[in-house]
């Protein structure tokens, strides 16, 4: 039998019994998830006679298994490995982060040169579902700043913040800190109302945390509408006042030092003493802000 010298082991990554990738591929570096299994598969064909000796070692010093006429399994590998003595292939189960490192295979066959190969393995812990505490205080447009913190256990490779289905980028009011763990919004804007997502992932899984923000704002400058626009004396007239605001604004009218409450002021029959300047004031109880607009009522 002709034996080939292995410069690197041929590996197949098995996860929950499933193979990542099609077929068998030669790799120098392999990632696997903690708790799952990895298979180091050599390209050595079974020989007519058993090998004189076969050894798998870890990081150059630790014996995983040495197989001669008997098997010597290294400490910590009991019940975790399966060795194919005809090819040297090795299955390592119940992976932990401590299994990350370099594995070396040495085969001593009958009447042929020594066969050896190496492969590097990185074991990652699957990311946990992240936690994110939403702010409990009232968020006021232009005044309040917010920091959202996305915490997750495991080997987090990427952490992406999203709003309205689009990734957030640093700049303007948004900034990221501590490896994207913290999102800072300073100050908040009404456009920030909605759901923020923090997506964490590694090569093996993807998890999301959500936080819904409500940003209070306004009132904006009121808009006044007169119906009908051209009104004659002795006709009825309605003045309507509106303003964009969260929560909804409250309104009052001021006319000749008289306050009239409500967004709508109705004049059943307009007379001379109704003509003049009307001021509509919108108030927001949460933001503490007010905004006013003036309307001149004229008769035809």
Would you kindly provide a brief summary of this structure?
The protein contains no helices and 28 strands.
What is the topology?
Blueprint: E1 10-15, E2 18-19, E3 25-26, E4 29-33, E5 37-41, E6 53-58, E7 62-67, E8 71-73, E9 81-83, E10 90-92, E11 101-108, E12 115-124, E13 139-140, E14 146-149, E15 158-163, E16 166-167, E17 174-177, E18 182-185, E19 194-201, E20 206-213, E21 215-216, E22 223-227, E23 237-242, E24 250-255, E25 258-261, E26 264-267, E27 276-283, E28 290-297
Parallel strand pairs: 4-12, 13-21
Antiparallel strand pairs: 1-2, 1-3, 1-5, 5-10, 6-7, 6-11, 7-8, 9-10, 11-12, 14-18, 15-16, 15-19, 17-18, 19-20, 22-23, 23-26, 24-25, 24-27, 27-28
Provide an overview of this structure.
The chain is an all-beta fold and 300 residues long. Helix content is 0%, strand content 47%. It has 3 domains: 10-124, Immunoglobulin-like; 139-216, Immunoglobulins (Immunoglobulin-like, Sandwich); 223-297, Sandwich (Immunoglobulin-like). The chain contains no helices and 28 strands. The strands form 7 sheets. Strands 1, 2, 3, 5, 9 and 10 form a 6-stranded antiparallel beta sheet that branches. A 6-stranded mixed beta sheet has the order 4-12-11-6-7-8, with no helix packed on it. The protein has a 4-stranded antiparallel beta sheet with strand order 16-15-19-20, with no helix packed on it. Mean pLDDT is 88; it is low at 1-27.
